[in-house]
């Protein structure tokens, strides 16, 4: 049988690392705010929602591009219908384009 041998100092380091990994929050989106309608170039109208990205570790744009969000039952993943906006000291925001039948579609684009 394989037996792992660690000194108490090594074990303590591993435990502290595991605790640290659990305590560092992952980037996540705040509450989405409903915005104005956006006339898409084709298909149905869209509504713009915006949300702030919190607990960013590392590069803000990378975190924005890779942090999923769900708005009105629509899942937004990487390279989906959203834009990242770096507002410097005010934070990183995402603009999400959500289909909305109450918004007009573009008939003459």
Helix and strand arrangement:
Layout: H1 8-23, E1 28-29, E2 33-38, E3 46-54, H2 60-66, E4 69-71, E5 74-76, E6 82-86, E7 92-99
Antiparallel strand pairs: 1-3, 2-3, 3-7, 4-5, 6-7
Provide a descriptive summary of the structure in words.
The protein is of the alpha+beta class. Helix content is 21%, strand content 33%. It is built from 2 helices and 7 strands, in the order αβββαββββ. It has helices spanning 8-23, 60-66, and strands at 28-29, 33-38, 46-54, 69-71, 74-76, 82-86, 92-99. The longest helix has 16 residues, at 8-23. The mean pLDDT is 82.
Mean pLDDT: 82
Largest beta-sheet details: 5 strands, antiparallel
Strand content: 25-35%
How many H/I helices?
2
Low-confidence stretches: none
Order of helices and strands: HEEEHEEEE
Helical proportion, percent range: 10-25%
What's the total number of strands? 7
Radius of gyration: 21 Å
- Label the structural class: alpha+beta
* Distance N to C terminus: 71 Å
Shape label: elongated
